[in-house]
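Apologies for my clumsy wording, but could you write out the amino acids of a protein and the tokens describing how it folds?
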Amino acid sequence: MTYKPVEAYGLERRFGDLRAVDGIDLVVEQGEIFGFLGPNGAGKSTTVRMLVTLLKPTGGTARVAGYDVIKDPNMVRRSIGVALQDAAIDPLMTGNELLKLQAILHGLGSKDATGRSGELLERVGLTGAGDRRIGQYSGGMKRRLDLALALIHRPSVLFLDEPTTGLDPTSRQSMWEEVRTLNKEGTTVFLTTQYLEEADQLAGRIAIIDGGKIVRQGDPADLKDEVGDPTLRIEIGDEIMLDTAKAVLSTFGEWRPARHGRLAIGLSGGATRLADVVRSLDAQGVPVAHIELDTPSLDDVFSDATGRRLEGDEDDDELDEGSVEEP
């Protein structure tokens, strides 16, 4: 049977007067890694919970693994693997015990459950910790065990909800490699993440949700091309000269969201105008502490779509007052 692993049309979820998800359309193709991006509170987790049947939609339709999430929730659950960020794992059980229990719940016999558990512990690098209580696992080990649990019944569609949150760089790279391997073996992956680098590394297509709506969707490379001009970011060495710097930069391109303490524009003409910018700032006596010119990235795509940045320090969520034109 031919089907789309994930289809959603006009999907919405209301909580009283609040529309957490406001009529979104999504289609995930067979065998792809689909990245779903958005800040906290954008509707990302609510969408996933509807797709995996943990939350009923209040409007629209959705089918996962060929089954309607409202009419056939049990068939959806049998067909998918889910590794949620806030998954509850019994700290008193061992990794082996929990995997065997999960396997039996999915209908595997005792012998098959034992074999599958050992296979998955080896796959996620937890063979040596299989008989330790989960309460003794590190955060990274729990994330890997959660992935193994999601794979126990060989699902055709795998939902990963921020799988590398809290992991160190080495563990993050290991998780990425495992996701790539699973995908090469034929598993369709629906990946939610706040890490733009993660989406760029793994996803063949992405969708950005903000305020409950899909605000950008497509191939990452195409979305970057649509942004256009490279982003020039400048840090001024003297805040007294900030207004002067803004006046100079406004003649070279349109404002883009920037981290606190920096100014950013889309530099018209690209690198060929960089020397002109530096000369103009110098002519006005503006000291430059840091300057960089970056080709469009997913960060720029997100900024262009939402008017703010997704990653960085706490100030990234708010625009610097001088980073955008006044309305």
In short: Residues 38 and 321 are 23 Å apart (CA to CA). The chain is about 35% helix and 25% strand.
